[in-house]
Every structure is written in C-alpha cells, then in structure tokens.
Amino acid sequence: MKNKILWIISVIPLVITLFVLRFLPDEIPAHYDFEGNIDRWGSKYEELIFPIIILVMALFWQLFVWHFDKKAKNAKNEKETLEAKSNKNIILLAAICEAVIFGIMHFVFMYSACKEATGDMTKSAFDSFMIINVLFGLMFIIIGNYLPRAKQNGIVGLRTGKTMNDEEVWKKANRFAGKLFIIAGIVTVVESLLIGGITSTMIMVGILIVVAIVSSVYVSRV
Predict the structure, then answer these.
(1) Cβ neighbours of residue 177 under 8 Å, at least 6 residues apart?
(2) pLDDT at res. 38
(3) What's the whole-number average pLDDT of the chain?
C-alpha cells in the first residue's frame, strides 16, 4: 500500500504541471540570485524538470525497496525477515516524505514564477530559502522519529564500523542520532521562520555538521 502511495504522490506534480502549463506565460523566472533577484528567464516548459526529478528519486527509493524485499524473501530466519521488512517500511516512509516535501516546493515555486511573470516583477515573490529550510526541518523531525526503528543494515541509519559490528551499539547510536535530528529539525524550522534567506540555509548546514560530529563522537565513546 505504501508503495502505491509513493508513486501516486510522485506522479501528481507532473500531472498537475502538464495541466497548468497551458495557463502559464511563455516565459517565466528560471533562476534567482542569493538575494532573490531574478537573474534568468526561461521557457515555461522548464517547470517539468522538477516533477521529473521527483519521479527519478521515487525510482531511486524503489530500488532500495526491492533490495529489502529480496532480503526478506531470502532471509535465513524470522529475525532477518522482520529486520528487512522494518527497513523497507522506513525507506518507504522517507521516500513518501521526500516526495511530499519536493511536491510542495514545486507548487510553491511554480505559483511564485507565475505571479512574478504576470506581475512583471524583478524579485522572488516568496522567500524560497525560508520555505525550503522549513520543509527540510520538518523532514529532519520525521527522520528523527523513525531513525531509532531502523535495524542494522548498510543503507538506513547511522552506519560506522562500530555500529555495523555491534547491534547494541547500533541501537544506542541511532536512538541518540534520532533525538539530535528532532532537535535539529525544530531549531531549523524556528531559525528559518525568524531569519530566512541564504543565512538560514547556512545555519541549517551548520546544524547538520554539528549533528554529524556529535553523533560520531557519541559512537566512538559507546
């Protein structure tokens, strides 16, 4: 069922964009500088690029789903079967969240481009950095909630030599990293709403670097 939801959500942006294209101006803003000024205009058909990327990403996630399906089928015992199915569900959840977030981003940017083109504007109608960062912050929160449920594997979770060789270390490390991701997501959402612009993106990147460093230090001491 989740597999069908992923593809439905991933296809919707392309279907809606194909319908909306006839109503868009022939030329729309296609690129902005760091201050939100329009620095390139392009064909309205460039709006198809993002929906196609969403579909490609869905296929990318689907490959991992097939991997865990195969792993569950070839499992030697019930424990391995349950672990493979659990990781498959987490992959599907992450894929669905990504498709939803990218879909929202696409619709906001398409509406913004239409508004800017019809209004003969020279600057972005919305703070795109703020919108993107808030959405990514929400995704960090979702990831943080589900990261502790990931079973030991080479694709999903906090993977180091130590966590891959010790199941107990894996559990502790991913529970810890999950909490950090939730905190990082909350901080990212708040700072993006308060600050916005490219500055909020730089702060978000800094937060992720801190999460990576702190998680690595924690694993080394477990």
Answers:
(1) 144, 147, 157, 158, 211, 215, 218
(2) 85
(3) 89
Number of C-beta neighbours around residue 40 at 10 A: 10
What's residue 107's pLDDT? 92
Determine the distance from the C-alpha atom of residue 36 to the mean position of all C-alpha atoms in its chain, rounded to a whole number. 22
CB atoms within 10 A of CB 188: 26
What tokens were used for 143? 């990831």
Query: In what helix (H) or strand (E) does residue 156 lie, and over which residues does it extend?
Result: none
**Residue numbers in the chain where pLDDT is lower than 70:** 1
Instruction: Give the whole-angstrom CA distance, residue 66 versus residue 153.
Output: 15
CA distance 91 to 75: 18
68: left (phi over 0), alpha (psi -120 to 50) or beta: alpha
Helical packing angle, 49-73 and 78-118, nearest 10°: 180
Helix ranges (DSSP H) in the chain = 2-20, 49-73, 78-118, 128-146, 161-165, 167-194, 197-221
| C-alpha closest to that of 207 among 176, 174, 185, 190 | 185
